[in-house]
Amino acid sequence: MDALNLLAEGFAGALTPMNLVWVVVGCLLGTAVGVLPGLGSSMAVALLLPMTFALDPTAAFILFAGVYFGGLFGDSTMAILMNTPGQGSAIASTFEGHRMAKDGRAPQALATAAIGAFVGGMVASVVVVFLAPRLADFSANFGPAEYFALALFAFVATSSVVSDSAVKGLLSLVLGLGIATIGIDAISGSERFTAGSPNLFDGISLVTVSVAVLALGEVLHVASRIRRDPAAHRFTFSGRPFLSRAELKEAAPAWIRGTAIGLPFGVVPVGGAEVPTFMAYDVERRIDRRRPNPMFGKGAIRGLAAPEAAGNATTGTAMGALLALGLPVSATAAIMLAAFQQYGLQPGPLLFDRAPDLVWALLASFFIAMVVLLVINLPFARHWAKLLLIPSQYLYAGIVVFCGLGIYATSGAVFDLLLLLALGLLGFMMRRHGVPVAPLLIGMVLGPLAETSLRDGLLSSNGDYTVFVTGPIPLVLYGLLLVVIALTVRSKIVNRARQDV
To answer: What span is annotated as the signal peptide, if there is one (predicted)?
Structure first.
């Protein structure tokens, strides 16, 4: 009951006219910035940081929270409409969300994303208020062995199911792992695959890779085929900006599962919402493969609903981890940690005692931000979808321009534009030869985590590899991995037998 009383006091502070204005402004700014390819909530918070010193801390952090959550929806909007995710957390939404848009269901896809974000964010906010200490205890159980097992599970499971050819899936994964190793080794300080170029010493950004492979690669692929089949690239959509009862029934289980998957990852520091969104997508894909009429690859609403709910659930609990533990598990959370320090505050258990008014008003603003985003974005789904009615030559030319602007804005280096073009050609070749993109991106996201966990585990055990198969969590993950491989092999054998009949 103490939490409820404190939360009620927080609502009293967050619902003052000025703080409510800052929530709305933050949601609008976050959505607007998220729509631009290559930009996102982390950049918006960084740009706003020096501008908010005139505000009191409570108003400033309410604004930041609105930007944080709004940025996620903006990223998803462009991921669905243009196959151009603003940040890594929206990559998984492109796979089925963009297919829904191409199939004439762009408003329904955006509505699915908005409701999924609302469900995941609201549940996460409740969890943060009541169950943050237990989630913190759960994260303490993860060490190098657990992280390595999690990464290996994601590598093998995803590569084996996203493509009809396991060889092509593994090839894509190896490409992603190779790109992830480029740069200066953090432990030894040696150069790896930089060809002596100082521009590659810091490695290649995931944003650059995702924008190039997903967005620019798609543009090049469309450009190569548009004269052969121009009608295939003309978008149409129904005017219905809401979900039917059947669509709600289809999406609801995925929203629940995605939320459940995303909640723990806000506390487990694996780099943000990329991992849970991919896991949620993978879970729905596996469930779909058992159905009489599989929908994945054709615009499955569950393939969009689950990642959206997972992403916002992770973001909500990540804010709880930042406040309760001082643990930033994403780039935006890290910038907000710096903002706390600029105001002379240190996130952690003592923050609840030293600045309770700020903490509980901020927690209350999470609930308000979820409602504001739903009110802002759900009615406008139809209008966002009208972007697809722009003639193809102008639409895709605009995507290329925004891709270049977004990447240049993040680094200010011409080299990154050349890198964007090279990786875009790679994405084009992958599409041309049927090589899936998802394993490449998963290799980029989880490659550094797997490498660091492997090396830390070996250093702590004096080179004893058995450290990776001790403990209940790694054994459970490896067991699940064996089950996944067995089911995948069985499925391919059954499909091959049916084709031979």
So the answer is: none
* 372 close to 27: Cβ distance less than 8 angstroms: yes
Torsion of CA 320, 325, 329, 335, to 10 degrees: 90
Say which residues have a Cβ less than 8 Å from residue 12's Cβ, sequence separation at least 6: none
From CA 43, how far away is CA 409, in angstroms rounded? 10
* Amino acid (one-letter) located at 146: E
Average pLDDT, the chain: 79
pTM (global) more than 0.85: no
CA distance 74 to 89: 11
Residues contacting 372, CB < 8 A, separation 6+: 23, 24, 27, 66
How far apart CA 476 and CA 465 sit, in angstroms, is: 17
Chain centroid offset of residue 436 CA: 18
pLDDT at 202 over 80: yes
Secondary structure in 3-state letters for 192-238: ECCCCCHHHCCCCCHHHHHHHHHHHHHHHHHHHHCCCCHHHHCCCCC
- The backbone torsions φ and ψ at residue 192, rounded to the nearest 5 degrees and listed phi first, read -135, 115
Q: What letter does residue 66 receive in the DSSP assignment?
A: H
**Nearest alpha carbon to residue 187 among 501, 474, 458:** 458
**CA distances from residue 232 to 3, 295, 342, 400 in whole angstroms, order as listed:** 54, 20, 52, 20
User: Burial of 491 by CB count in 10 Å (0-12 exposed, 13-18 middle, 19+ buried)?
Assistant: middle
For residue 72, what are the contacts with CB-CB under 8 A and spacing of at least 6? 30, 34, 41, 89, 90, 117, 273, 311, 312, 315
Token pair 């599962």 is found at 257
Return left, alpha or beta for 393; rule: phi > 0 is left, psi -120 to 50 is alpha, else beta.
alpha
Is residue 324 within 8 A of residue 132, CB to CB? The reply is yes
pLDDT at 436 over 70: yes
> 183: which strand partners?
192
Tell me the DSSP string of 264-297.
HHTTS-SSSSHHHHHHHHHHHHHHHHTSSS--TT
pLDDT tens digits for range 319-365: 887 787 666 666 667 667 777 877 888 777 677 777 888 888 888 88
Q: Are 461 and 191 in contact (CB under 8 A)?
A: no
Residue type, 43: M
Closest CA to 305 of 108, 82, 439, 35: 108
Tokens encoding 158: 């995803």
Q: What is the pLDDT of residue 399?
A: 75
Look at residue 268 in the predicted model and tell me its pLDDT: 65
Q: What is the mean pLDDT of residues 47-61?
A: 75
E strand or H helix at 55: none
* Cα(174)–Cα(184) distance, integer angstroms: 19
